[in-house]
Design goal:
heterodimer; A: alpha/beta; D-Maltodextrin-Binding Protein, domain 2; 5 helices; about 45% helix; B: alpha+beta; 16-stranded antiparallel β-barrel; about 25% helix
Chain lengths: ~140, ~550
């Protein structure tokens, strides 16, 4: 009995730890909980963050980016937008230096992105899934 | 061991007893003090809140100002060399000395958001190929009129081709030197107005752009500055997944301002004179389609391009046609580039080709034929009546007896006859000799020079480029490139053939008519590709950065 209990406890602890490990590598795309967007495709999110589209399902959105070098940023651009940091810089320099577009505003970290998404109804951001709080809706999970 | 335990156990009790009297004596006191301190803490907290709010407000004010002003820049530092000492690349200024000036450049761009919809942007560029002079490539007021429509008022890059607008941002291109066969338009900016209308159809993003303005530029091949006013154009770009497609049309009306003594400066008046004076004088019919002018020259550019970039594979290509209503070396150009990214490395390969098209060649042939006919008519008409052509050959060989014919046959020679035949080696003879030389020069001028200068405007060139790009970090790349240029095209040149003969008045030149010589044009190069073996190569390396 005691051994069984201990084993169960050990197992559940390991499970939690594993879940925590996965969670830290998982990036989710978020909007304000009051937004009427409930889900978005990777294509739509990619186009929004590359400045090619400013709405999802007819609801206008403003992308909220993270600082260069953030883990969530690298994961997001690699898995959702399919661009390395160098490719992303080449992409934006073509638009910036021709006056055709500018990259989304960058915020310091997950917490600042959450704060912005909570404050602004049309904001769309991405964060580590562990940083999801109340008032935030996840519309896409990067696999 | 037991003893130690006892001592430790007793210690708290001792402490308790010793502090009890103090506590009892000051409980009321302490409560009061605590209350005061709590108030103090609340006060401090409030003050902190105020400070925090102030800091936040301050920060947002600073970040607002910082957000409104965006500063970006790009630079290329490197060097290029041409391996042949007989040809020279005029567009970048690449010869057989390794020069950093050919490709090095730096640009800085400032954009200030005036309101949410209006912004002011200036991009200053300093190019080594332009003597590092600072020039504004962009300087405009931008207005986001609607969600889909963006307008720009002021100076902008000309959107002739797929990459024209960011051709100087080396970081955004695979090459160090773009394909010279296509990217050689000597005007980069226009002052005017443009609009971009963006819209989506399904997952395809379209951008339709139109502009109108005035441009200035310089053609090295004709050694002339030019103003194109008006210049206007439109293009459509479609983005779909990894694909980009683009078609464009541009029209401009040029007025040229040739350098004194330059190619255009000597050719245009010579040809205009041939048309107005010598052609009619020698009875050579004007074909009526020569259009030799320095003004109102219409040029049309049509281009189509595509790019495929899935992150690993890069394929891009363009074709374009340029036509101009003057003797410009214009025609068809195209290139295709394939690259593949292996992590931080990207090797790439480019094939590129250019040739003047039949429309431009026909125009040049017409001018050549006319100039040639005028020259030959002058040459033969200058002969003595009754002496077989070509006139000057006989005239010169028997100068003493037949000089008289020289003075009366055409408008160029206006000398009076020398009075007697024995006036050998007198001033009269020398004067006629001088006239003979003037006629000779005229013939060279109106036939040989024009013919050959025109022949140089019929061009062909192709190249193969291999290159390697390495991402040093997300904002800096290193590049290596080698391009082999060849196939400059076979051309035929014409020369007046003459020798020397000893006569009674001394050594005289004898003229043996026109001969043709096979050769090659220069392609897009200046110099003598025949001496270089009809090919050349350019090697370059660079470091490119953006911030």
């Amino acid at each position: 009995m005691t051994i069984k209990l201990k084993l169960a406890r050990v197992l559940s602890t390991a499970g939690l730890m594993m879940a925590a490990t996965f969670a830290s590598a998982e990036v989710v795309v978020i909007v304000n909980a009051s937004s009427s967007i409930s889900t978005a495709s990777a294509d739509e999110i990619q186009q929004v963050f590359l400045g090619k589209r400013n709405e999802i399902g007819g609801v206008s959105v403003t992308p909220v980016d993270q600082s260069e070098g953030n883990e969530a940023r690298d994961t997001f651009y690699e898995k959702v937008v399919d661009k390395t940091p160098a490719q992303l810089n080449a992409y934006w320099s073509r638009l910036i230096f021709t006056g055709k577009g500018k990259p989304p505003k960058q915020y310091f970290d997950d917490a600042e992105v959450v704060e912005t998404v909570l404050e602004e109804e049309d904001a769309i951001g991405y964060i580590d899934s562990s940083a999801v709080t109340e008032g935030i809706k996840v519309i896409y999970t990067a696999q | 061991m037991v003893k130690k335990k006892t001592t430790l156990a007793l210690l708290p009790i001792t402490l308790c007893f010793s502090s009890l009297p103090v506590l009892a004596a000051t409980t009321a006191d302490l409560e009061k003090r605590l209350e005061q301190q709590e108030k103090q803490i609340k006060r401090l907290e409030n003050r902190l809140k105020g400070t925090r709010a102030a800091v936040k407000e301050n920060r947002s004010r600073i970040s607002d100002a910082a957000d409104r002003l965006q500063i970006n820049g790009f630079m290329t530092a490197g060097a290029a060399v041409n391996d042949g000492d007989d040809v020279y690349e005029p567009f970048y200024g690449i010869d057989d000395d390794t020069r950093s000036s050919a490709i090095s450049k730096a640009g800085v761009q400032m954009t200030f958001e005036i309101t949410e919809d209006w912004d002011a942007t200036v991009q200053l560029l300093s190019r080594g190929a332009n003597g590092y002079d600072l020039q504004a490539e962009w300087a405009y007021l931008g207005w986001q009129a609607t969600d889909n429509l963006a307008l720009k008022f002021g100076r902008q890059r000309l959107p002739y081709y797929l990459l024209s607008e960011y051709l100087d941002v080396g970081y955004a291109l695979p090459w160090i030197i773009p394909p010279l066969e296509l990217y050689n338009i000597p005007a980069t900016t226009t002052d005017g107005i443009s609009g971009v209308y963006s819209f989506n159809v399904g997952s395809v993003n379209f951008a339709a752009q139109a502009y109108a303005g005035q441009s200035t530029g310089r053609t090295e091949q004709l050694e002339a500055d030019f103003i194109s006013s008006p210049s206007w154009g439109a293009n459509l770009t479609a983005d779909w997944n990894s694909f980009t497609f683009r078609v464009g049309y541009n029209r401009s009306t040029l007025r040229t301002d040739p350098d004194e003594g330059g190619v255009a400066d000597s050719l245009v008046p010579a040809m205009q004179e041939a048309e107005s004076t010598y052609g009619p004088a020698y009875g050579v019919a004007d074909p009526g389609n020569l259009e030799i002018s320095t003004e109102n020259i219409r040029t049309d550019y049509i281009s189509a391009g595509f790019m495929y970039d899935d992150g690993s594979l890069l394929v891009m290509g363009e074709i374009a046609n340029l036509s101009a209503e003057t003797f410009q070396p214009v025609g068809d150009a195209g290139y295709i580039t394939v690259g593949y990214r292996f992590g931080k490395w990207m090797p790439h390969l480019t094939f590129s080709k250019f040739q003047t098209d039949s429309k431009a060649d026909d125009r040049i042939r017409a001018i050549q034929e006319y100039a040639d006919a005028v020259g030959k008519a002058m040459y033969s008409s200058a002969g003595v009546v009754g002496v077989p052509n070509p006139g000057l050959v006989a005239t010169n060989g028997y100068f003493n007896s037949d000089y008289a014919g020289l003075g009366v046959t055409n408008g160029i020679i206006t000398s009076s006859l020398c009075p007697t035949l024995d006036a050998v080696a007198t001033g009269c003879e020398l004067s006629v000799l001088g006239q003979r030389d003037a006629l000779h020069d005229a013939v060279i001028g109106y036939s040989q020079t024009i013919y050959n200068s025109m022949e140089d405007q019929i061009q062909e060139q192709q190249s193969v480029t291999i290159g390697l790009v390495y991402d040093i970090n997300p904002r800096v790349k290193a590049k290596l490139q080698a391009t082999h240029y060849e196939n400059f095209g076979a051309n035929t040149y014409q020369y007046l053939n003459y020798g020397t003969e000893v006569t009674g008045v001394g050594a005289l030149e004898t003229f043996n008519g026109f001969t043709t010589v096979d050769g090659h044009s220069n392609g897009r190069f200046s110099g003598d590709p025949d001496a270089a073996g009809n090919h050349t190569a350019i090697y370059s390396f660079s470091i490119d950065a953006v911030f």
